[in-house]
Every structure is written in structure tokens, then in C-alpha cells.
């Protein structure tokens, strides 16, 4: 019964349409293409979501409600009713004489033609008690002869689209599976014991035998699934190891740390001593910079851990050796803040800093470009404007990317190309990436296997932990009272409203209009409720100059309250701020809430974060808010975030959708991941051709993105 007939899947003719001579492509063929199922290999890897058991018949009397079964019987009666609504009712009588109604609320003349009295029919669906007795609603069905054979394997149900009937897709996949090149690439001793060959694994997953247990297929623990996951994880490890080895072949400037030089002067001038963790990561970075091979290091540290000063000290090492350095931040506000800080730290020591952002144009931009091209400026600070093609460095030795997870894949690829271009002119620059979103270990091993990772696992001393409270929106007045007290004590307050996208020049959508209203209305409301307090307003739609002025006003303490969208999410550093109110907190992601909260608790004063929510909370909303109350540890937050969201979503920013793992789930498949990590170097060393073929088969174009 492989050729089922599902009217819900298609409009006019429920059977797969034969190719029409005039139109080169049928609608289902186009739908296949839209799903990317254009090669036999792609089809073979299009795996079932679930299975239907059409290998045996169930007597009507034995069908249990809620369990899909196949029943067979003779049609006794078929008619269109108009009450209680228009519908097509077919009465089926099975061998035992029990009756079942097949009910169609959507139907076509073809149904009436096929399901005529006297026909023998097999119907697949769930039986339930209904208006007319036992019934099946919109079953899939097929007219059969009396002794037609049953399916000998479970029937796969594939992810599909409205234009693509399952029957058509099943045929296409079965044919793809036949034609696909699934030759074993991996030498047998590199595959974990007990896993079937690839072709066998796929054949099994597409057509499990009638007696296969469904549970290990559904939870993907079956050896056939394990084989697929292993293949995929291995390809990904190989690709990252290849990238790492290729980089090790490149030459980079040797940047030894010298005594008594800029780095030490900067250290001496700082108003604080480095924490042990900062000293350790500085040493790790300095060791990389001295090797003459390009560094590719991720510095992760919770919000407020003090990454900026590590960046400045690393830049000082590069500049000491006579090379330039570029520091890039994801937003203008953050870039501006870095610029101010670095100028304050480094200009007294004789370093010239160039500032580049998208909004800095004309003469100012030209001057900055000239200074970098001539080598007059040793340091460039800015947004992604720093890596535009027309920005030429005399001798770029080190690029630093702050909050790197906030840059899109496109910008990361552009950065890589920029570094390669600069590298062709001189030597490949070193790269230091910084992120306040700690990546759980298994994810780091999967997605960042081509990176060295340094971790700042210690906050600077004297911080008082932030207390987080969750309030219903109805308690706003209380919260405003609290703001009044805080400001009266000379402290400052953030009030965050949901986001207005910081994008250039495009029209405001209805949604962002509403959000704009939200943030401006809140600003008006707080200004009125807090007479005598200066309330600032900051959102992505303000012109850059205005943003800068508002931010400067808040930094200087002139503004007591700052009403802002998430433009302040990353990096903003005003240690005197001690209260953060987040409105509609349930709409934010966990990582984002943690980042926002990190704007307070940056000084020695005890800080509070208030999470306001309105209306009933969703289950995940509740989990997120609970996590925020229970912990302020970024690693714990990341772990819970991964748990709530799953790894695909978690890594979304880096992987841009289709570069994600399709089959493996690194939270569940840690053991396979460990094996893939073990096998990858052996394969690269002993079977380089197999390694290359494996990467090409599984990643193809996506390998590029994984390196971004
Ligand atoms: P993040 O890691 O979130 O980027 P920052 O670099 O902005 O953190 O540092 C947070 C605050 O801590 C800043 O005000 C910074 O000057 C301060 N800071 C950094 N390192 C230390 C330290 N070792 N002792 C005291 N304060 C420090
Ligand atoms: Mg920072």
C-alpha cells in the first residue's frame, strides 16, 4: 500500500501529476527544488519525520482511539450530507462486519468517483468515536483488490510542503536513494563499532522493516541514525581542523612582548590591577602573538569581566612591535565608547587613534583613511566600517572583534577576506575575537574547533552581585518609586523597552512603529512621573550624533534615567548605574536579558534588575525569567539557554540557518562528537583524500560558512 492517496496534500488531482509536455516542470517538481532536493544525494538525505505502519490490517472493532491504523473493507454507502455541514460520508464494512465512517469535509469529485459503493478500500488514519459512530476523518486511502499485498516496510512520512504530496516525495526519495553515490568514504576502522555502512543506514531509515521498533527511530538513537550523525560530525570536525592546519602554514608578524614598552606603560597607568584571570589570558594571547603564525583566538568572558583592557593590552603588544591594530565593535554606541576609552588610555602614551564608523563621512573619514594608510595612526577603532575595502592599512598586525557573536555571517566572511587581503600585502594579521556569550563546552568543541579559546572566569574584585526581581507590569508605580529613591541617592537607572532594529534607512514596519511608540511613551511617562530628574531617550532610529550626545550625558551622570531600546545591550559601561528595569522582559531571549542586566553591577554599589512582564507567561517565558532570578553566572545562563532553546537556535547567529548540523544534536550526541574528534586527525594524516571527500559530501558550500 505504498501509493497512498491523500487529498489534504493537493488541490485538484491528488495523484502525482505526470510531467506535462508543455510545462517543463510540474508544481511538485518545483516544490522539490524549493526544498533543495535537486540531487540524488540530497534526496537520499531527506529523512522521514515519522512513519506510518501500513504493514498490517486492524479490524475496526480493535482500533483504539488516537492510534493510526489501516482498516480494509467494502464500501456500503457513500453520500454527500449538507447537515450539520457539507461533507462526504463513506460507510465501510470490514471482514468482521463492523462499520466505520470515512468523513471528508474537504473533498473533490474525484473522491466521489473513487469511493463508490462496492469498492474495496484500505484507509489509514486514527479511528475515533464521532457524530455518526466510529469514524476516520480525512484518512489516506487506496482502492485495492481482495488479496492485495500489504506494505512490507513502514511507510515514511517526510518533511514536505503544501505543493508536494507525500506520494510524489516518497517516489522521488526512493529513486534518489537508488541513484545516489553513497559509496563508503571512511576506512572501516575509523567508524565506531556497531554502526552500519552509510547506504545500509539510509536504506533502513527510509524503509524500516515491519518489525522495527519505532522508539529508537523516533529519538534517533538507532545505530542507523548514529551512523548519519557520526558522518556529519566528522565532516564538520575535519573541516575545522583543515582550516586550523591551513592557518598554521601561514606566516604572521612576530609580535614579541618587550619590556618597558607601551604595554607596560599602559599597565602602570591603569587605575586598577589586573585580575589573575586577565593576567592569564593576556599571557595566552601574548604567546600566540609571538609565534609568527596567525592567532585565531576567542576570548570569552562574562559581561563585566573586563575584556576591553585585555584588548587594549594586546593591541599595545602589536603596536610595540611596530604594527597597526584594528578594533571593531558591532554598534556605533559601543565603538564610540571604546574609542573614548582607548583614547583616554593610549593617547597620553603617544598613540594616534583613528575612528571609523558608517556615519563618519567626508573630510573626517578621509583623514582617518590617510592616517591608517600612511601608518600615522597605529590603531583604528570603529564599527564594520573598519573593514571596508577602501580602508587600507600600512601594516595591519592584529584585528580585534568585540562582541563577535553580534556580527552577521556576511560581516565575518568579509572580515576574513579583509585579513587575507591585508595578509597578501604584508603578513597575515592576527585575529582576536571577544564574546560575552559563553559557549557551552560541547558547542565550543563542535562549532569553534578551529579556534583557540581563552576564558575570563573571574570578575574584577569588589563587585556586589546583582539582585534580580520579577514583577507584573501592574506594579509599575512601585518600580517608579524605586527609581526615584535610586536617583535621589546619586545613582543612575536604565529602563529598557523592546527593540527597534538598528538598521539603516529602511522604512519602519508596523511593528517597529509600535515599539517606537512604546519607548517614546515610556520616556514621556517617566519624565512626568519623576519631576526634577533628567530622563534621556535612546533608540536605534536616532541620528548617530544624537545617540552620542545622549550616551555622553548618561556617562557623565547628567541624565539620571535612560530610557532605551536594546541599543544598549552590548558593552555599554556606566559603573554608576545601579538599577535596570526591563519592560516586557518575557519577550527577550535569555542571553539578551543577561547581556542587558550586565549593564548594571559594574561598580561597587549593590545593583538591582527588575524584570517586568505583562499578561500570562508562556512556559519558556517562565523558564527564562526563573533562570534570571536564580543565577547571574553567564555560563550557567548559557547552559540553561541551550536547554530551553536547543542548539540550533542557540548557534543561529553564527551559523545562519543552513550551516547548522542537520542530524546531530551536540547536547545529546556528545559521545559521537568525542569519537569524531578522535578520528578526524587520524583521517587527515593517513587518508587525506577520504577526508577531503567526506567534507565535500557533507558540507559542500557550507564549509565556508563554518569558518566564518
Ligand atoms: P566586558 O568584559 O563586559 O567588556 P569591560 O571591559 O567593559 O567588561 O569592563 C567592565 C568594567 O570593569 C569597566 O569599567 C572596566 O574598566 C572595569 N575593570 C576591568 N578590569 C578591571 C580590574 N582588573 N579591576 C577593576 N576594574 C576593572
Ligand atoms: Mg565589552
UniProtKB/TrEMBL annotation:
Q: Note the SUPFAM superfamilies from the entry.
A: Nucleic acid-binding proteins, P-loop containing nucleoside triphosphate hydrolases
Report keywords, A-Z: ATP-binding, DNA damage, DNA recombination, DNA repair, DNA-binding, Helicase, Hydrolase, Isomerase, Nucleotide-binding
Record-level Gene Ontology MF annotations: 3'-5' DNA helicase activity; ATP binding; ATP hydrolysis activity; DNA binding
Region annotated Disordered, chain positions: 1-28
Q: Where is the Helicase ATP-binding domain?
A: 288-456
Q: Where is the Helicase C-terminal domain?
A: 489-648
Which PROSITE patterns does UniProt cross-reference here?
HELICASE_ATP_BIND_1 (PS51192), HELICASE_CTER (PS51194)
Q: Does the keyword Transport apply?
A: no
Task: Tell me which EC number(s) this protein carries.
Answer: 5.6.2.4
Supply the SMART domains for this chain.
DEXDc, HELICc
Q: Which domain of life is it from?
A: Bacteria
Listed under GO biological process in this entry are: DNA recombination; DNA repair
Q: Known Pfam families for this protein?
A: DEAD (PF00270), Helicase_C (PF00271), RecG_dom3_C (PF19833), RecG_wedge (PF17191)
Q: Which reaction does it catalyse?
A: ATP + H2O = ADP + phosphate + H(+); Couples ATP hydrolysis with the unwinding of duplex DNA by translocating in the 3'-5' direction
Q: What class of enzyme is it?
A: isomerase
Please give the family membership noted in the entry: Belongs to the helicase family. RecG subfamily.
Q: What does this protein do?
A: Plays a critical role in recombination and DNA repair. Helps process Holliday junction intermediates to mature products by catalyzing branch migration. Has replication fork regression activity, unwinds stalled or blocked replication forks to make a HJ that can be resolved. Has a DNA unwinding activity characteristic of a DNA helicase with 3'-5' polarity.
For this protein, the record's PANTHER family field holds: ATP-DEPENDENT DNA HELICASE HOMOLOG RECG, CHLOROPLASTIC
Q: What is this protein called?
A: ATP-dependent DNA helicase RecG
